[in-house]
Amino acid sequence: MAGIGFRLDRLSREDGLLGPVASIGHGAAVIAGPWLLAVVALKLINLNLIHSDMVEQAFSLQATLIYLFFISLVAAAPITAFAIRLVSDDLFEDRKADVSAIYLLSLIAAALTGAVLAFCIYAGVFDLKGEALAAAILAAAVISMVWPAAAFCAAMQDYRTVTVAFVLGFGFSVAATIGVVGLGGGIAVQTLAFAFGLGLASLWLSSSILSHFAAPVVSVSRPLKRLLSAMSRYRAIGAGAGFGVLAIWIDSIVVWLSPFGDAALNGLPTSPFYDSAMFISRLTMLPGLVVFLTSVDSDWFVRMQAFLGAMRNHETLDHIEARSAELKHGAEAGIFRLVGAQMIAALVLTVLAPALVEPLALQYQQIALFRVGTLGAAFYVVFFAATTLVLNCGRDRAFLSLQALFLVLNVAATLLFLRFGQDYLGFGFFAASAIAAVIALATLNDTLDRLVFLTFSYALRSARAERRPWTPKPARKTGARLTSITAIFRVRHAGRPEREA
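Given the sequence above, the corresponding structure tokens read:
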């Protein structure tokens, strides 16, 4: 996805005086649109149900929808990561024949995975039955298709479509759900009405994608083989995406299953006290994420292209290392801007928290939780930016390790602070985000310090994998060095016959 910010930066210059505003809006929609609109949608539906004296029904519907978002994101994240990684290569090399088929296969895979995971959780863990179970499984399948669709639209740089689809889709979800409530429909029908709106958003996005890649799908066997191969080749990216989604939700799940959780009438445990404050506090990540997308990522894209161009043009090692130093300097400056914007926003919101209680429909007892969640969200933005840049450098396993580390830290810290009572809710996420952010920054710094070495090493491994020349197994370090020199020589003379090289 590297280069999205570059495109948004160009949009901000092309659209006149309102360009920067449009660029920020599209960036917010791409990065945080679903989360932002989901929180707003849940708030509107809950307020409508509560004003209609349907408090228990509002609690049950909120629990159902929260679980649907969690299930769909966990189900779709790895599949979307595999498909986007594969399609990004195709778009870079101007190969578009398989894009439509890969997209449709990713939609089907995400829907099936979402349905299976929903069945396992709703039926296996919480023993839902009948129409409630059927509605939840169908809704999970429909919502799971939204995330690959949004990612593919972002990959083809159609940000306006992403923005419009999310706004209209969530708007229809809210209207349809409130309409069903007015007609006396139960939780199952309300769930399907909400999912139907997101299904329309998915169709809107899909029409844009399939019209852009208009090549007919002649066969699915070749794209299917490529997608399965990508799942094996990029398994670290897929696993990292899955761990990343699970990690951002895991503190909520731990609280749900603790004494601070409450079970709705349909048996789904949540924690309204924790969820409402923490979900809103995570919306405060928006300033830092938009800065990252519209500024840091665009500058990174330009500098990385210059660095890779120096290597492709076989420039001197001094020149390549100078480009690497420029890339590191740009990354450090960008992270500094991101931290400044996010910390200023966090401090302002922390100070103004008492004044935000009523507009955000919170309780005054939740002020401390909102403040801790806001500070934790600020550190998470730093973690997100650092791990994204690490992944852009090709360190898939480091990305996976960092996401797994944050997952473990979030579980351990949340369990630890639960022992101290309700006043310490949210401190687990805050501590995990702070520690993970520091480690991610250290990993990024190490990656940028060794970028030239890592890039050459990756090129050597790729050359060996493609050419697979026969060489005797080296018995000593000198033999290993000679093998590396031979590989470099083969890469530089790739156009000559094997014997001559």
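The CA atoms of residues 357 and 364 lie 6 Å apart. Try to locate this feature in the token string yourself.
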